[in-house]
Design brief:
The complex is a heterodimer of chains A (134) and B (131). With 134 residues, chain A is mainly alpha-helical. Chain A is 75% helix and 0% strand. Chain A has five helices and no strands. The longest helix of chain A has 31 residues. With 131 residues, chain B is an all-alpha fold. Helices cover 76% and strands 0% of the residues of chain B. The mean pLDDT of chain B is 90. The chains are: A mainly alpha (134), B mainly alpha (131). The interface between A and B is medium-sized, with 34 and 35 residues.
């Protein structure tokens, strides 16, 4: 909308319309959390790759015993949580950049959050089942 | 695209090919691929929790030709996103913005990710194939 088309009757300060948009209230929260989870995933991702490579030809019993070790279970849960969190933050930016129909954008933003929470909960439950069942 | 009378910025096709734009595009593309790949992590953990039969089924799935191709793709995506992610974290700290450094670190991400992928799969193949 060009400046000429602005309704002349509107005597509100332009700031009134702008307030609440963009990053107000949340500030750099998204950006910072994305970097925090990225830093965590540098460490946890390398650990995950090494752990999986060590289990390359493991049978069921060996793999289960490896995941059930306290440190492995702990780090695996930390890895899965930061992975889904980081994935949601990244996908959110991609959707906001490329999906220009508002209802599709909102639908996708909600859908990825629901799916990520489901995925994270399912993974954590699986690790706990493995770690806590004798 | 409600109002196309606005001046539009030139889109990608008018730019000469440069490695920096490839690293940027690949970072998003591999990020999306890895988000889909997180399903594989869920499947692995759920099958391990569900019992021996489902775990063996999972192993045969990822050991199949299609599974191997997907794993090679995902492993490269992971290493690329990791290398370039470290590069982005360094840049977020304010370092590496001189053009020469920027181009060099771009190449480092691309080549580093390929080298890491080759190393991992060389190890997997010498150890007798996946799964």
């Amino acid at each position: 909308m060009s400046a000429k088309e602005l309704p002349l009757k509107d005597r509100r300060d332009p700031l009134k319309v702008a307030r609440g948009l963009g990053s107000s209230q949340s500030g750099v929260g998204h950006w910072w959390t994305q970097r925090m989870t990225a830093a965590a995933l540098v460490l946890l991702g390398v650990w995950f790759v090494v752990t999986v490579l060590c289990l390359l030809h493991a049978d069921y019993v060996t793999a289960r015993a490896a995941v059930a070790k306290p440190w492995n279970a702990l780090l695996l849960i930390a890895f899965v949580l930061s992975m889904f969190w980081h994935a949601v933050l990244g996908l959110q930016v991609v959707i906001e950049d490329y999906v220009h129909t508002r209802w599709k954008e909102v639908f996708l933003l909600v859908a990825i959050k629901f799916l990520a929470v489901l995925g994270a909960l399912a993974s954590v439950l699986a690790v706990l089942r493995i770690a806590l069942t004798p | 695209m409600a109002d196309t009378r606005r001046p539009l910025s030139p889109h990608m096709q008018v730019y000469r090919w440069q490695v920096q734009m490839v690293t940027s595009i690949l970072h998003r593309a591999t990020g999306i691929a890895l988000a889909v790949g997180s399903l594989l992590v869920i499947c692995g953990l759920l099958s391990l929790a569900a019992g021996e039969d489902s775990f063996n089924h999972f192993k045969s799935m990822i050991g199949s030709p299609v599974g191997m191709v997907l794993l090679i793709g995902w492993s490269w995506a992971l290493f690329y996103h990791l290398c370039n992610g470290i590069r982005h974290l360094i840049q977020d700290a304010g370092a590496g913005y001189a053009i020469a450094q920027f181009v060099r670190s771009s190449w480092l991400s691309v080549v580093g990710s390929i080298v890491l992928t080759l190393l991992v799969w060389a190890y997997v193949l010498t150890a007798g194939g996946a799964a």
